[in-house]
Amino acid sequence: MKILKLVTIMLICAVQSFAQESAPNFDETLVPFYTLPDPLTCMDGSKVTTTEKWTNVRRAEILKLFSDNVYGVTPDGILPEVSYEVISEDRVALNGKAIRKEVLVKFDKRYPEFNMSILIYLPVCHKGSVPVFLAVNTLGNQEVSDDQGIIVTKKWVRNSEKYKITNNSATEASRGARSYRWPIESIIERGYGIATFYCGDIDRDDKDDYSQGIQKLFAREGQTKADANEWAAIGAWAWGLSRCLDYFETDSEIDPARVVVLGHSRTGKAALWAGAQDTRFAVVISNDSGCGGAAISRRCFGETVNLINSKFPHWFCGNFKKFNNKEDQLPVDQHMLIALIAPRPVYVASAEDDRWSDPKGEFLSAKHAGPVYSLFGLKGVGVQDMPKVSQPVFNQIGYHIRKGGHDILPYDWEYFMDFTDYHFYGKNSSISQKVGL
Ligand code: GTR
């Protein structure tokens, strides 16, 4: 009897501690005390006081720490047989306002099934090459517009009642399903292009998908599972973003020196990781990227490392699971991811009701990346306190929090374009007054 009682008590304790560790916290007063790792102290304890030391020593250290412990190592193997083919083109798309093209990228002749289709819209009346926004999509290129010319993806897509995706196949019903997230006409009216590819072209957003993803092209013979420090889905999508940039370097209509990589939520995590690794991206934008994106992991507010790894085990590398409920032992935190983008402009956007993504944690990352920007003589986010709702701040780091929930809305895009105008065209651009510059 006594033993039964003891076992019951032990079981209750175990369940309680599991619930405590697994339940998300939304109470600011319960955020644990934490100390952030210093982006400007090297592994050997020496301080970084020059941009040279940052670039040559500390930046490389931090990149390696993120690779080994969070996103997995991106292989640097070159694929020698990459080819590009324009598979559709319309020079009078969207009622004559845009050029639309889709470019099929084939990576390796051994595996023709691994290919990526980049959908690109450019303004019709552009002179020379144009700057473009680039982001991953998660339903297939057809999600961005009801433009009948877009090829509906034939790749595996997650089933969705909302978007009428059954048998993991997209149909006409998903054409334009998320067009409100892609204000193509406003983007081209402002002189920018917009490009995207479907995440499933590179790696399915699904558990247990090692053999389906691009990782296969870099695997050892007979390898069926990623090693603990090897890349997972977010790393693969980030890699795909860089491969788009490779293509842009060959397209005379696109300015490869002015590519803005951005993403919302899971694709925001990928955009930040792509921007951190690949310095060719001129501007990096994170929208509601939350845990594993812009939010400080140590705050354990909203989604935690444990929660994200349990629900999406295929997003981060195996080693990241070691930090489930042990965020304080991470050798990095997400302010260092933002710092890796320095001195390039970076923008972090949050939404008031998106507490799952921890808006305050997203702001704090932007703020605590500041010392690295200062090293370059640049202002980081330029404010101490979190800006009020609908009061964006623009410096070398930009930040806004808008009304509403987890989404990417025209409001967000408007400030992303303003921020980009500010950095590409200077203070005299029309936005200066709007944000009080
Ligand atoms: C959620 C996930 C977030 C975010 C989001 C999304 O379910 O917990 O980390 O990535 O999905 O991508 O919309």
List keywords for this structure.
single chain; 437 residues; alpha/beta; Rossmann fold; 10-stranded mixed beta sheet; 11 helices; binds beta-D-galactopyranuronic acid
Structure description:
There is one protein chain. Helices cover 29% and strands 16% of the residues. The longest helix has 21 residues, at 2-22. Helix 5 (233-248) crosses helix 6 (266-277). With 437 residues, the chain is α/β, with parallel strands linked by helices. The protein has one domain (61-435): Rossmann fold. A ten-stranded mixed sheet has the order 1-2-3-5-4-6-7-8-10-9, with helices on both faces. It has helices at residues 2-22, 51-71, 93-96, 184-189, 233-248, 266-277, 305-311, 334-339, 359-368, 370-375, 410-425; strands spanning 83-92, 98-106, 115-123, 130-137, 193-198, 254-264, 283-287, 346-351, 393-394, 397-402. The protein is built from eleven helices and ten strands. The model is unreliable at 9-20 (pLDDT under 50). The chain is globular and about 55 Å long. It binds beta-D-galactopyranuronic acid.
Estimate the helix proportion, in percent.
25-40%
Major pleated sheet: 10 strands, mixed
Beta fraction: 15-25%
Bound ligands, each once: beta-D-galactopyranuronic acid
Order of helices and strands: HHEHEEEHEHEHEHHEHHEEH
Strands ordered across the widest β-sheet: 1-2-3-5-4-6-7-8-10-9
Number of domains: 1
Low-confidence stretches: 9-20
| The CATH superfamily title | Alpha/Beta hydrolase fold, catalytic domain
Radius of gyration: 22 Å
| CATH architectural type | 3-Layer(aba) Sandwich
Number of helices: 11
Number of strands: 10
